[in-house]
Write a structure and sequence with these properties.
The chain has one domain: Alpha/Beta hydrolase fold, catalytic domain (Rossmann fold, 3-Layer(aba) Sandwich), CATH 3.40.50. Helix content is 31%, strand content 12%. Helix 2 links the parallel strand 2 and strand 3.
Amino acid sequence: VSFGSWIGMQLLMRRPEIEGFISIAPPANRFDFSFLAPCPSSGLFVHGDKDRVAPLKEVLALIEKLKTQKGILIEHAVIPEANHFFEDCIDDLQTVVGAYLDKRLGMPRHAPPPARKERAKPAAPQVGNG
């Protein structure tokens, strides 16, 4: 989120095995994202419409620049009423990110998580009177 999204995008440029990204509240007005030319993979930008730290206008300019690259799909989600830290909007943020991950990973939407097999717990050691 925020500064972390800028750092994450730098990592994306240095690691060719990364196949996608999710950038939340990127501070395009405060940090230089020009290193993303060209952006090596598709991804999602998520932003709150009440974000005053990183105004939507600046983020949209970055997204539009990245969308011009062939073979790269840049998606953008705006969460209504969300500020820079998504206060009172975390559930909406989780829903948007979860749906995107389901789509990218080829999972059915709202699929239940895979069942985990329970391991047998080791028996508690017996303390004897001896």
